[in-house]
Amino acid sequence: MGGKKLEIKQKVKIKNRKASHEYIFIEKFVAGISLKGTEIKSIRMQKVSLQDAFCLFVGQEMIIRAMHIAPYEMGGSYNNHEAKADRKLLLTKKELGKLDRKIKENGFTVVPTQLFINDRGLAKVEIALAKGKKLYDKRNDLKEKDQKREISKMKY
Q1: CB-hemisphere CA count at 13 Å for 94?
Q2: Whole-Å CA distances, 131 to 21, 37, 38, 78, 111
Q3: Kind and range of the H or E element at 96?
Q4: DSSP string over 23-84
Q5: pLDDT per 10-residue tile (average), the chain, 156 residues
Q6: Domains along the chain?
Q7: Transmembrane segments in this chain: where (predicted)?
């Protein structure tokens, strides 16, 4: 056991900034994640990326795909997890049914917006039922951000 000590954070909040630029959020849900092995330790060290992650149904279950959780450095070789494995989302049957019906409608998708550790120490992911933005919507959002930035500069 070496003298190397890894820093584990208690407050973890990883956001998917790209999602708010690409999608209009209709409704948000909080879901648990089924994790294996050393994944929770990597999450607590904030070694997670939601950049390319998306959610889909496999049978009656919803999974999150392409969420990158870096292998835990102190986990050894055989204990460690696969970085981009599919992970099951833990939602109620009512929520799953509602999401399934909406996804079957044209243009809706489910994207993860943020990953956090709740006060009980469990990893949770906030997912959003979303609809893709058109190019002109993205331009309008950027224009509004620029205007707000200019106004805030004027105040000081």
Answers
A1: 1
A2: 11, 34, 34, 40, 10
A3: helix 93-104
A4: EEEEEEEEEEE---TTHHHHHHTT-EE-TT-EEEEETTEEEEES-EEPPPGGGTTTSPPPTT
A5: 57 91 95 92 93 94 95 76 92 96 90 95 95 90 92 82
A6: 13-155 (2.40.280.10)
A7: none
